[in-house]
Amino acid sequence: MSAIVLIDTSVLLNVLDVSGRNAQRQAVLVELEQWIEMGAHLFIPMAAIIETGNHIAHVADGRERRAAALRFTEAVEAALANQAPWKPINFPSAESVLGWLSRFPEAATRGVGLGDLSIQQEFETCCRRYPMSRVCVWTLDDDLAGLDRPGR
């Protein structure tokens, strides 16, 4: 079975070449090509979309900020139109958000933000939904590293 790969903000920022957040861009692009060649199903959680937009809004240089915003917009629009190597995960239901909120106070005491918590929840949901597939979070951050479950 093909792998289910959730793309984290740290990876998306490198793919989109966002100034100040793109130090690992070449390695990320090589790995992206490998995932595509393996036929992996790539998904962008809503938290990663929102967090990426927030990081772009804080790029210091106005020209670079606008250029990154345009690349971001094109990438997300392409994903929504099924014309990108990845797809956005469906918008969360009220039930999902309530589940995240119920776990958030404990997560916050461990320094885990709501965005990362929602990605962890998406990972768990994908593990249940696709038991035969490898499910992983592709990230460059320590907080989500290790979320990788082999298929059965």
From TrEMBL:
It comes from the Bacteria. InterPro entries: PIN-like_dom_sf. This is PIN domain-containing protein.
